[in-house]
Design brief:
By secondary structure, this protein is of the alpha+beta class. It contains five helices and seven strands; from the N terminus they run αβααββββαββα. This is YdbS-like PH domain-containing protein.
């Protein structure tokens, strides 16, 4: 069995998260990298000289480039699939994760969106079960999809738990 099928079983209809999640994370990365890089360059420039400040800016640019690439890879790794009895959520590049949440084990479903997420038009759906190890979250969903998924998962959770 190939490792890819272990974390993303074939035959499922995998849904990706919105590209706006990638954009948001890159904007946050660029903001903090530039802010800290320029502040660090200014401090180093005043204390050690402007030649060293240029090195700090070069390091900040390298961190920004590397982070930009990592965020893109991480964003592409997120996906979810709705099956008859459970929800599959997969993510991760270096450390792959597949969480299988049976609908009957769900206790409640949260939908959250902070100010930055609302500005980018995305939300996060979080599933809570009795066992924290089987909790799952799906970030970067358009509001309509987050609402649809919340309602569907809540209804399925209620229907499956009624038989317990």
């Amino acid at each position: 069995m190939a490792m890819d099928t272990l974390f993303a079983p074939p035959g499922e209809r995998w849904q990706p998260v919105s590209p706006r999640l990638c954009q948001l994370r890159r904007v946050i990365l660029a903001f903090w990298t530039c802010l800290l890089g320029l502040a660090g360059a200014l401090a180093v420039g005043l204390v050690l000289g402007w030649g060293y400040a240029a090195a700090v800016v070069a390091v900040a640019a390298a961190v920004l480039g590397w982070g930009w690439w990592v965020i893109g890879r991480n964003w592409r790794s997120w996906g979810y699939a709705e099956r008859g009895d459970d929800l599959l959520v997969t993510h991760g590049v270096l450390f792959r994760t597949l969480v299988v949440v049976p609908y009957g084990r769900m206790q409640f479903v949260d939908v959250t969106a902070g100010p930055a997420e609302r500005k980018f038009g995305i939300a996060k759906v979080q599933l809570h079960t009795a066992t924290p190890a089987t909790d799952a979250e799906i970030p970067g969903l358009p509001p309509e999809e987050a609402e649809r998924l919340r309602d569907r998962l809540a209804a399925l959770g209620e229907a499956r738990a009624a038989g317990l």
